[in-house]
Amino acid sequence: MIAYAQPRSDWAIGFLDEVWWSRFALPRLHTWQDPEYPVRLVEQSWQKNDPDPKALACYGVLWQNGTTEEPVREQMWLRFVTGRPVSEITIQFLDWCCQQLAAQGKRQWLLIWDNASWHESRESAHLDQKTQPRCQTNGRRGTDFAFPTAHQKSLAQSN
Q: Which residues of 23-41 are buried (b: 16+ CB within 10 A; e: fewer)?
């Protein structure tokens, strides 16, 4: 798909991901550490009337230009929000990206996004249905391509 989209001037190629941090939940992580200077995490407790958000999320898209042989990845769009990356906020970010791309004359977005379980919500499952009328009136459309799972790969190899 990247090779198909790359030479088309009205296409954009973007790699999207999101991450979030909580001030209160300890992360599940593994780390190499020096025995003399171990990593120490301190669990914070929430205090009543604390004005700071409990969590912070970041969305990012890394844009690719250039050729498939020599890709250029010099531009990144970031957006920080309070809270976790829930479907409603994710859809707002995707919509914002579409608006920015439309302003640049892009009509197609090849979105490369990991297959995390939280992308499977009811809200994101209906994303195409919600955006389809807007995309049709503005001449934009999106296509969903799924990477094959290990099970699908083994079925393809056995045929």
A: eeeeeeeeeeeeeeeeeee
